[in-house]
Amino acid sequence: MKIIESRLRTIIYEEVAHRIIDQIIEEELNKFLSENKEYEAIKAADANNIKRMVKRGLLTMAIAAPLLGVLQNKASNRADVAAAKRSAAEQRVEIQKELSSYALEDTESLLRSTAQYMWSLDSAADKQSVGGEEGEDFQDTVAKKQNFPIFQDYMGGRTQMLSGERGVVQKVFNDINNQIVKGVIYKSDLQPGITDVRSADVSAEDYVKTYKDRYSLPDFNPAKVGKEDISGNQDKMQQAAQQIHPKGFDFLKKGGESFGYETYELLDAINPELPNSKLSPSQYYMQIWNKVTGQGTK
Question: N or C: which end of the chain has fewer CB within 10 A?
């Protein structure tokens, strides 16, 4: 049988095309099998990592179990695993919110918000004139009409006394932290550090009026910066406070200035209505405690 040249060329072309197609199919199949094998190895590695996290207490079984089920399923694909990981991440965020460490972070954020602890000694002082009488030193006049609890200390620098609320929040932080160190994991298992919650014995108005004399708050006079004028001012306030309670004040130095605040123990001994919240120290403690732990709200 004779095959004309054009037909022969067509046959050869078709044969070559089939071989190329077969080769492409074989290469793609091998590539798929190889990638699938590698992906199975990745899934296995992920599963082992999750098991280690569970053993170390970094991941709960409630989150890990569904994700492990997908990873260990031979039929699961990349989309299945991605969806399971997203779901696990979302659940983990929700569970983390129930951890005691989350309450500690919230309390720390409150401590860093210094602005909420600003207050004044006399709400009407800023409306008064500072002119003074004839012959009276201008800086002495400013000191007499001092509105904010600020003074200078030779070692501590410019020192601002924060409102009593700061000391209460610090105690909440310390109480939570101490329980975390002892192994308390969940917010619901945290216990308040106080048991006696009572109304204030001193009104906010009387507390503010007597603050300066009670603690021997030094006058703020920017003209006096020498050691002989401002040395030991923080110590003088601390000594006055410790006559009421040994815990006294806490002073924090940041750069060239300091912040001071009454400890909870000192506040509780006086039991005033706090200047900003208008609550007693114990009442404010429980308000903050319930806020950061979620207790008392369910």
Answer: N
